[in-house]
Records
---
Amino acid sequence: MTLPLKQQRGLLIGAIIGAMIGAGAAYLLMTAPANLEESEEPDPITAKDLLALTGAAAALVRKLDDVRRRT
């Protein structure tokens, strides 16, 4: 499958941005909060937290689709 240069460039830029966001999110999720004692555990992630993250991701995809339609 061959794509025009403009689409190839957009795909590459999107992949780089996605990789950077994914790596940043992984770093934030894997590092423990600094203000906890050694024996203290952080609060667990709840279903409400996951639903909020899913909603935020959906809003981001919706916004990207809006940008795509305007170009």
---
Amino acid sequence: MQAIGRILQIVGWLWFAAGIVGPVVGLDRFNFFPGLVLVFFSRIIRAQAARTASPQPETNEGEAETTPPPRPLNTERGQPSAPTPSPQVSYTPRPPVPELVVESAEPPDDQSDLLERIVAAGREVGEEITEKTSTPDLAEPDMDRKPMTSEEMIARAHRRWDSKRG
């Protein structure tokens, strides 16, 4: 069986080479694909022959054993190894960290000025938002009214966006 596999492998490699070199030389009759198939087919045959030709273990009486020996499962545990010693950890205390002292709870004058300006700006923005949302002009249109024309939509958009920019 192995001899047939070797012969097929040699023929396959020759056919593969003829399929690659053949068109260059002028032999368009050969294609490389059948040679490639022969190479893989021969490898299958040779592997099968090697598997069947492996020697069978013999029993005490000289007969070949009909059942293979049990294989160990990957899930089974081997002999427990000796326990590993735990590493010795040495402890070196750190020096104490000095505590931070806060001098005063009140912000300096320049920070309080800045804080007051931020709060005032926030109030103004909040008032603008409540005014814009409460105006019926910017509210969603009722379904009872007729649809707006494009000029009306453009004018409405200008009113909305121009007030936000300025």
---
Amino acid sequence: MEFSFKFEAGSKAFCRLISEKAESQVRQLKSELRDIQSQLCHQERIFARIEARRQGRTLLECELKERLGCLGSYQCANCQANYSAVDNQAVEISK
């Protein structure tokens, strides 16, 4: 009986250590993925600006004076007009 209690406690401690390590790795990978997605979004914006200029379009100036336009959930009206095609493609790809 005493052995089974020790084994159960050891088993629980081992499982807890394994799950904590896995959760830590998941958090780290999610953080790395956010960084990669941010870099990808930045590169997409650069490509969209180059492509628009190549096609002879004039891009509207960002209302917040950001060089590549508003990044993140909020976008000014000018950036929405400039990048609507790029952002729509990104949403379709991620679905």
